[in-house]
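Task card 7
Instruction: Convert sequence to structure tokens.
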Amino acid sequence: MVHIFCLSRRQRRAGLPLLFGMLYRHSLPRWGAVSSVPGCRSAMMAPSRPGNCAVHASQRHPAGETAHVLSIASEYRQEAVILQRSARLLGYRFQFCGFRERWVGWGTKLVQYRKALEKGLAGGRIAATDPVLLIDGWDCMLIGPASEFIQKMSSPPFSEGHQPWYAGERICGPDFFKANRIDAVYPDPGTPWRYPNAGCMAGRAEPVLELIKELLKPSGDKDTFPEDGDDQGRLHEHLLERGESGQSLPYFVDSECRIFQCLYEAEPQWQLEAAKEGQRLPRLRNTQTGQQPIVLHGNGHTGRWFMSGLWREMGLLQKVGLTVEELRHLPHDGPVPPGTVPDEVHAMLHAVKFRMTNTELKLKRERMMDAFKAGKAALEDLRLPYFLAYGSALAALREGQFQPYEDDIHVGIYSWDLAALQRQCTECTAKERDSLLKSTFDRFGFEPVQEIVDNPLQASAGNNVQQNQAVVVCPRYYIAEGWSDDMAFPILYKFTHRESFVRFDMMVFTMQFGQLWDFADGGAETSSGWRYSLFAPQPVEFEKVMTYTMPAKPLEDHYGPDWHVPRVYNYIQSLSCCKNRCQVLRVHPFDARMRRVELPPAQPWEEFKSSVRHFRMLYAKAMADSEHEFPEQKLDLYKLESKPVVLFQAASMCKEEGNVRLKNGKHRGALDKYDEGIYIIDKCREVLLTWRLIFRQIHNEKADKDRKDRGLKVADLVEPDMPREFRSDEDEERSLRLALLLNAAQAALQCQEWTAAEARASAALELEHQNKKALYRRGLARASSGDVEGAKLDFWALLKASSFDSKEAINQLQKLLPDDVIKAEFQKMRKQAAKEQKVGALLTELDEDERIAVQDESSMTKSEVSTADCVDLHMDTTHRRC
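Output:
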């Protein structure tokens, strides 16, 4: 029999209350065992309770063996449902276990594995020699049949010896400093997948249980392996303990990807093959080893994205009899729900999309140029050599101006220049060096960036930083265990320009292993970096300013041979273009005594100018067929172009330019500019509405927590007022929108576009229903388009709103009605208005008399007047009112 134990590597909270029973009961009618006819709904059967699922007849193998899948997870997620269906379809017996078990950390996974195996072996459900699979539950995909797994476990190399096998990956994490030691004790397999990954394990049941017990034994000075410990770190330690002491290795690594394929790669190392005759599902084939793995593990940030693509490319949901709609009510663990792509997710959420207008592009580039000039001045003041990097280098060589896709400025500096700056400090310490950098940038209008950090060690050195705390991440360090603060390697300096809100990021490039490295891609968080051949900063003229940039060759290594063609990549697509990404990173400590590296000579600007002209011609040709330089996309509240103050500035620029065009008789151009401003204000309204919803959600969560803490049935926490700055932004948005609509209506009248003029004036009246300009301009538009009745209503409303003092309204009415009709209606409306005014004044007087009467009554009571006197006084007051 084959048994699969599935655990979630992403289980986060200990003792999380689960509503699994409700979800499970709701799901059973649709998620029963798969019938022998794929897609046949009527043949589905409901499984029994999670602890003991029934076995379908189609799951039995000719030899009488039954394959088992045991999944341990904190909740029923979409990926777990698909895993369950896949297991049954491929001949495995699926069983959930471990619901509502207290989850402390990755060590809990080992404890649950041990319990499940001990119970299965003791109860006779699992034989000691049965092959078993232990895989993570929320980021694994089962695509190979149980019969193939049984056959592979009975064949070399898996049949040689009793040791279990772990999945292999090319990254040695979480501590990549163990890579050299593992390389020394574990024979070179000849493939990149040489480091064990704890997410997937295979072997015979009894040896697997013995290995898990060994992993749970005391380690170092601890009584037992803690449940909040790292299971993969413990796995590596156990291998080194046995290997470095000369003992036999406790397990092997599936480095040829015969059973497991880890997807944490810079680019796909596999190709998808359609299902052959007799196969249930499509398969992947490793392009280096030629093997077809049984389990795919979407580990790491890139692995999760690759798996998201494979759900769709393989059509796995349809093949196991599920649909996206059936799973939608369940949470998902991947970046997007299985079987969907990000664009479909946005469509499901009805996300509003906007593009950047020409005015916004111009304004954004002006702001970025202001920030660049300020940062350049700060670096020159420090005498710190620099060069534009990545997106900013593309801007210098390709566009000749900053890209609309970028929201920050990237600058590279060399570590030996940073070390020289540190040596100039009085005490030659890292703290003094960083203080000098921050104070200098502060003088030029910058402030260090604050972020919520996951790993305090990588965010700051020498500070007592808690996880998920907002801290200054300038610089962002890599610091290994046992390093002093001065040994911490500064990966990235982050500043924000106060005036323009533009980020200014400085990456530290250094020499290691004979190559130039940039570790700013998350540093040790992603165990990756970018490597280059040594290059010198290339002089270039950018926006009429002489500066320095990355040369073309490093950009080609980083973005691919077509780097001069503008594209909007997602993260995985950008990784697939890179030739310079390194998966195993070993950062050396920072040394203030490091020597300056001799750089190759750069081309003089006069010689390099022709190359830049060629790059910009290629860019211009690529943009020739593009309707918009910046395509429509969903609003990102944290981008520069989504800040209300920036949107107000852009809309005001449109209004002012429209006014100039209207004054100069360019009516069509004025209307276009006003409409552009309205489009920008629509975007601003969406931003403000989203922030209001976020504030409401925060309050609701706080109120619900308060209700639970106090044991109330209904929350009574009063929602606070919106921040004053937010209310001010809403007022400015309304005021600017009204002005743009009124001006657009006037420009449309000049263009004789009556429908457009009426629409914009009507929109203005929705904001201010008695606005005189809007009434007059809508009346003109209606009269010109033949809507006489509508025009008369607007002009009469204008006359009334102006207290019957609008000559423009009278003049327009005279064009539509005879004078005697106008005079009669005018007198009638004036009498009606006078009557309404008189009634209003009487109502005001009544209120005053009533207050006086109450005061008189109160004073007479104090003077001990009789009750009869009080009644007479009240009647007299009533008589006066009449």
